[in-house]
Write a structure and sequence with these properties.
heterodimer; A: 119 residues; mainly beta; three-stranded antiparallel sheet; 8% helix; 34% strand; B: alpha+beta; five-stranded antiparallel sheet; 4 helices; rod-shaped
Chain lengths: 119, 208
């Protein structure tokens, strides 16, 4: 990602909640998208900060009794397109130093736009 | 077919986006136990409701469908059949939602990181359908009990006596001194059997 040795992806980087514009650019370029049923996508690729392969689910609803919460919003002006902004974070399972209890990944986060359109 | 494209969002992520992502991940990880817990609660609650309804139906009122007029008895039979079918379907769906499917899972499906989410959605759907079927079962049961209580009673078998003064039909009240007392729609009627030209046992008197 960069020539700065401190910014070179390493699996043992200490946990730090940080975002940079290139994280989203890197993820948009490197992540693979798989459909896993209606309203369910899986994004898979290397974390832009620590480089560990991670998987993130993008879903339109989550069960939370008594009602499901709808995450996926159809906010496109184009009727045949669906655009969705998804906040993402590193979800790798590697043991990053200084990671607080209950947190995941290395702390990197970014935001992607997912565009679904008919071929 | 659809095409899915990824691109950087127009605005850079903020700490609010990080918290939203963390919250969503927490919800995703716990949604399957949550739907199981909800289904178990609904299963227990609806089971108790049905048990209470059946108990209530036995408290008072006519309890024998055989005492109903034949048309009503058939209707009650159909309603009870519908209640049985709805109850069985509802119970199976609620058990499916609470405990999962009895089928073995294809290993290819288990490779998907979204397997738990897909199972959650299937369980939530089974919960909704099972809840509707169980409520329908309760409604059918109430309708069957109401029809059994308030439906017209089957007419008693009677005696039709034909004499010089006409024909009298009714259920036997008593006999005394060669006279037969019949209970008719018009009240008790005494007929002299010595003058009777015909006596016939009938399933029910014609209500003309």
């Amino acid at each position: 990602l960069t020539d700065d040795p401190e910014e070179t992806p390493r699996p043992d980087m200490p946990y730090k909640e940080v975002t940079k514009p290139r994280y989203a650019e890197f993820a948009a370029q490197e992540f693979q998208v798989e459909g896993h049923g209606p309203g369910t996508l899986v994004l898979r690729g290397p974390c832009p900060r620590c480089g560990t392969t991670m998987e993130s689910q993008v879903v339109d609803v989550i069960f939370r009794s008594p009602r499901a919460i709808r995450f996926w919003r159809q906010n496109s002006a184009l009727p045949d397109q669906k655009r969705h902004e998804e906040p993402m974070m590193c979800l790798c399972e590697d043991p990053h130093p200084d990671r607080p209890e209950g947190r995941e990944g290395c702390g990197a986060y970014w935001k992607l736009t997912i565009t679904v359109s008919p071929t | 077919m659809t095409r899915i494209e990824l691109s950087p969002a127009a605005e850079q992520a903020t700490s609010h986006d990080l918290r939203a992502a963390q919250h969503q991940q927490r919800l995703l990880k716990t949604e399957l136990p949550r739907v199981r817990e909800a289904a178990t609660a609904w299963r227990n609650g609806l089971g108790a409701l049905l048990a209470a309804l059946i108990g209530f139906g036995l408290i008072k009122g006519r309890s024998d469908v055989g005492r109903l007029a034949s048309g009503w008895a058939a209707v009650v039979g159909v309603i009870l059949l519908l209640a049985l079918a709805a109850g069985a379907v509802g119970a199976l769906l609620l058990l499916r939602a609470a405990h999962g499917s009895a089928r073995a899972t294809d290993t290819r499906d288990l490779r998907s990181p979204a397997a738990d989410h897909i199972e959650t959605l299937a369980s939530a759907r089974a919960l909704r359908q099972g809840r509707a079927a169980t409520v329908a079962c309760a409604v059918f049961l109430v309708a069957a009990v109401a029809a059994t209580w308030y439906g017209p009673e089957k007419a008693d078998p009677g005696i039709r006596v034909t004499g010089p003064s006409g024909t009298v039909c009714g259920s036997v009240v008593r006999t005394a001194g060669g006279a037969l007392v019949l209970k008719t729609d018009a009240g008790e009627v005494t007929t002299d059997l010595s003058n009777a030209t015909a006596i016939q046992a009938v399933d029910a008197c014609d209500r003309t």
